[in-house]
Design a protein that fits this description.
The protein is α+β, with helices and mostly antiparallel strands. The chain contains seven helices and five strands; from the N terminus they run αβαβααβαββαα. 25% of the residues are buried.
Length: 175
């Protein structure tokens, strides 16, 4: 019979699984307590959370929440990064921590919006520019054809104005 603490842990994981837009499973077995604390702090700044989970409780929570892919990312010593909202921020947080500290944190797999993702895909997410920069790039690409059309149309009108100005100057010089 499950204890109240285990039921609370399952309920907490179910809540995190349903709220998260991305969950990245990691193997934290090579990290010290101080390193895990530092990882949590760094992830909190980027809007993500790091939770060390017991595999059996995670499997029960995955079954209760209907998140079947969570069953595939849980194995061995498992810590999960839960990202809420921006999926890139969570991936960047983990990647930045590993690069800065050279810690032995291994990214196994992840679940993003209900789909299973590989460690390479997590790294690709981390390599993306920030959302604001992506939006600016998209708007620039959308604006470029319009700006080119305006330049062409303005060039024709400017050319006509220059020709008319020169002709007016010729007529003034002849008169």
């Amino acid at each position: 019979m499950p204890t109240e603490a285990k039921e609370a842990a399952v309920a907490d994981l179910v809540d995190r699984m349903t709220r998260s837009s991305i969950a990245i499973a990691t193997d934290f077995s090579g990290l010290s307590v101080n390193q895990v604390t530092q990882l949590r702090k760094q992830l909190r700044e980027s809007g993500a959370e790091y939770k060390v989970v017991k595999n059996r409780i995670a499997l029960i929570a995955a079954q209760q929440s209907g998140q079947e892919y969570f069953k595939e990312i849980v194995e061995g010593s498992t810590g999960i990064v839960f990202g809420y909202g921006d999926v890139v921020a969570a991936a960047k947080g983990v990647d930045a921590y590993v690069k800065e500290t050279r810690a032995e944190l291994i990214i196994r797999k992840g679940v993003m919006n209900g789909a299973l993702i590989s460690p390479a895909q997590v790294s690709a997410l981390a390599a993306l520019p920030p959302k604001e920069q992506l939006v600016a790039m998209l708007l620039g690409q959308m604006n470029a054809p319009i700006a080119g059309l305006l330049r062409v149309m303005n060039g024709t009108i400017s050319g006509l104005a220059i020709v008319l100005q020169r002709r007016a100057e010729q007529l003034d010089a002849a008169a």
